[in-house]
Structure formats: structure tokens, C-alpha cells
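Hi, here's the filled form for the chain we discussed.

Project: internal
Contact: R.S.
Residues: 542
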Amino acid sequence: MSAIIVNVDRIVYHHAAELILDGVSWEIQAGKKIGLVGPNGAGKSTLLRLIAGELAPDSGFIVRHKTRIGYLAQEPRLAPDRTVWDVVVSANESLHALEAEMRRLEARMGDPAVYGDERAFERVLAAHARAQDAFEQGDGYRYESRCRQALQAVGFAEADFTLPTPFLSGGQKKMLGLARLLAIQCDLLLLDEPDNHLDLAGKAHLERFIRDFPGTVIIVSHDRYLLDETVDAIAEVEEHRLTIYPGNYSAYATEKQLRLLRQQQAYAAQQKEIARIEAAIARFEYWASIVINERHIRQARSRQKMLEKMDKVEKPVLEREKMGLELNGWRGSNKVLEIVGLDKAFDEDIILLGLDLLIWRGERVGLIGKNGCGKSVLFRCILGQEQPTSGVIKVGPSVSVGYYAQEHQTLNPQRTLIEEIWDAKSMSEHAAVNFLRRFLFPYRRARDTVSTLSGGERSRLQLAKLMLSGANFLLLDEPTNNLDLPSCEVLEQALDEFEGTVLVISHDRYFLNRTVSRIVEMEDGALTDYPGDFTDYAEKMT
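And the returned structure, exactly as it came back:
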């Protein structure tokens, strides 16, 4: 058994008056790769922040056994006036401060007022020697080399080191945050959705990094393919508690169902036993009331104590509440979308070049490619939000297009949730509130503004509007990015039952395997067709 590096002991945590975690215990072992899963809002990020020391539990203890912990938040905060190199080098604040102190003391030694005064010079020289010794103890002279290696390990080339942070993509910012943690040589990495905004190449790079990392990794991710490839245990946060499952995501999904079924059997058997004991108690009490008999009273009390001491099996929840998404598009035109010779340029920057695409009714097409290659631009051209430089886009005459935007641009941050539903379809306020409840929005949230919603909540609201649109051709841009795993499964089921046509941009390989029968790869402004799902595509690429 590996050494325990962090011990979480019966912690309880509330946010305001709401209970988030209740009596959670967890022994985190050295070298483990653990996936942390659970519904949106269950407390996954809270648990990571508690382990990192950013939050303190209301009760219970967290013991960190000489462990250097690195925490990567969902949205890393990077100074806008720094370069990639500056951000990583400044990760070790103590070394950074020591080096600055050494430079300051060196400058003082060159001051005539100091080197002309023997005693002052000796004091400055001694201070410099102490700073230099501390710098060497921290392996400071190799620190810049480690920073360079850390950046290269997460996919940055030397040419990227001078890039200002505002010019980085969301995925690059995540990888830069990861490089900072590598530079300070952490033993335990706490990664909160590091794969968000990464393209397929970036996700493959992240997988290799996690597998090769010598320390412990706890990763929150909704990418089931990534979890299958990297982790050897799953920790599930649900109903304020933590449950550990050995194996990867697929093993967890199977084992969880088996545990629930076993719990259901144990619960049913215990309820039968409880009913038998309660009937015996009632019988003895009845006899004691007719004929005052101490023996009957003792027997009733004995059975009652037996009942009270019994370890109760909780009734399992076999089916948690999930969003009620149904996509009811009609069949429509046989030829849904035809694109011929499409070019799109911004000034002298060519994005799409001679692009051809034909999609037939009922097809499920996955559009993949590197970040920035033009996938979202193609969607905007199809929707008429961008005018092509040249070429033809034809949408079938009996086709109604529904659009899911990656950054939730179809939602107005200033509107309430009810107003967003009314924007999609006219209905009474009562009907709108009930419809929102289908998408897991309680009554009290119906009049909140969109700006107050989390990423996962905005995703569910967008899907709700998509359902009301009744569209039969869906353009989905990264629809699983902010959804929790149960909601991803609902979306996959809804798409499987959908009679219309789907063109989806996604870097979620598990989702692509479940939903598409054709992959179209965008590279250098053009498209290449691959029949089959993502696994078929990946095999052709190897």
C-alpha cells in the first residue's frame, strides 16, 4: 500500500446556509491518479479547494503529510501584462524574491558608499552570502531550466515563451497554469477541469502528461474518454458524501450500478425483516394488553431493542433527477446542407479555402480540428452571421436550423430565465416555470437573470431553448463543455432518438463515439471525410 500524503477526516462544509459536504473522509495515496466526478454543484471544486488549503472546513480535519500541493482552478487568473515565461518564472515566489534580493545586494556592493566602508561592505557581503545559500538550497540555479522543461512538457514551443497572456486561448491558459505547478515540483496536482477548451491534440497531450506525472493527480473532468485513459480510481461526490471506486470511468459506471442493485436487494430484505419484527412487537403488546404478562412485555421490549440496534440500509436512489430534454425535429428536406467552394478570409488571413460539404437528412456528423482552424467560423457562415468571401451555402427548403453556441451567445445575460423561455416560445408564466423545472431549475431561480447562472446552468438553458425551437437541423458547438456527466448522457440519448440531422463541433471523444456516424476533419481551411465514429477515425490516423 502506498504512503498516505493527505488525510481528509470527517469534514463538514457549508456555503452560506447550504450543506455542501457532510462527514467526508478520504485517504489520498502517493502516486494515484484519481478522477473526481459528480453532478454540477455537488461540491467537487469545493473539495479541491479544501484540500489545497484555500478553504477551511466547518468541522473535521485535513492533514497534509509534507506534501507540496498544486491547485489549478477552472479559470486560471493570469496577469494581463505578463508573458508566458514571466508567468512560469514567477511561480516560485520565494526563489523569485531571493533572486531579486541577490541582485539588489550586488548593486549595493557596487555603491561607492558601501565598498568604501569596510564594515558596511562586510554586512552586505554576508547578507548576499545568506541569500545565495538559500537560493542554492532551493535549487535556484536550475530553476529556469525547470521552467523551460515545464512549458515544453505541456506543449509550449520556445517561440511561444514571449507571448503575452491576453493572446492565449482558453486551453493555452489552462496549460500555462499547469506549467506553473510543474515548475515548483508539486507532489499532488489538483486539476479542476483542465481539459476545458482543449482541442483533440491538446487532450491527447494532457493524457500523456497525467500518465507520466510521477506524483499524485486528482482531476475533475467531464471527459469520460480522458478519465478512462488516465485514472486508476474514481471518487464520486454525491448527496454531500464521497464514495471511492477502483478503476477507470467505465469500471466505475458498471460498479456503481452493481452497488445500487445490491443495496436495493439488501434494503428490500431488511424492510421485510423489519416488518416481521414490528409485527411480532405488535403481537406481544396485544397479548400483554389482554393478559397482563411480564413475559410478553419483555419479549416486546427485546424485539424493540433489536430493531433500534439494527444498522439501517438506506433506500438507494436508482434514478437521480435528470433534465427532461427531448428533441422533436421532423424529417424535412432530403439534402439538408450543401456547401461548394466556400472561401472565407478576414483581411489577408484566409480561414476557409475551397471548402466542400454535403450532409443528408438524418446524418450525425462530427466536425473536428485544432482550436482556431475555423470550425466556429463555418457555423457562423451557415447561420448567415458571416458572409463568405466566395462560394455557395445551400440549406434545404424544409430545414429549420437550431444553434447551440459554445460561449452561450444565444442567451441574453440581462434577461431572466422565464424571459429566455418566452423568447423561444410563447406560453404562460406558469407553463414557463414548469418547463424550466424539467431542466433542473427550481421555482426560486426562474426569475434570476442569466448572468447569475453557472456554465452548466447556461448549457441546460440553451438546450431548453433548442428543444422549444423544434428545429430539425442542429448545429452544436461544443455542447458538452460545461455539462455534468448525467446531463451529457441525457443529451446523448436525446440525439439518439432525434429524427433530424446533426452537425456537431466537439472535442469530447466519448460523446463523438456515442452520437456520430461520420467525422469531418478541418485542416488548413479544407475538410476531409472519415466514415464512422471517433474510434474509427483515430484508427485511421495511427
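Let me know if anything looks off before we file it.
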